């Protein structure tokens, strides 16, 4: 009987350890969610950067109109404008590739988070099932213990009656 209680205690400790692991994994998922939010904030900043790039492009076009009016430095200014446009194009390409990389990374993190959520749900279901099974086993063992105690009591009553009858005989 004491072995049964020891076994039940071991099972409870095992369930407790499983629960702690689940809580740790939840904390890790929360940290990853915070990272995803940081990436989203960075993406918003990059969108603002893109808006400023559009403004720069508009300013460059206005500058181009002024440069056409100035005949003296026309060739030099065209070269400068081409350099600026090339730089802007490289910046936009760099920005686009960075955005694509971030989208991919966010997608991967989202998928990983989804898989972790599925894992947690599965573990929670298993933990719930094990908890129900343990409760049922405890109820059965409590009933068996009560029966055993009743039988012990009856045995002692019969034993004392036998002793009494032996004394009478």
From TrEMBL:
UniProt keyword Secreted present: no
Keyword Cytoplasm carried by entry: yes
Domain of life according to the entry: Eukaryota
Residues in coiled coil: 57-126
Location in or out of the cell: Cytoplasm
Gene Ontology CC terms: centriole; cytoplasm; deuterosome
Biological process terms in GO annotation: centriole replication; de novo centriole assembly involved in multi-ciliated epithelial cell differentiation
Main location: cytoplasm
Record keywords: Coiled coil, Cytoplasm
Protein name: DEUP1 protein
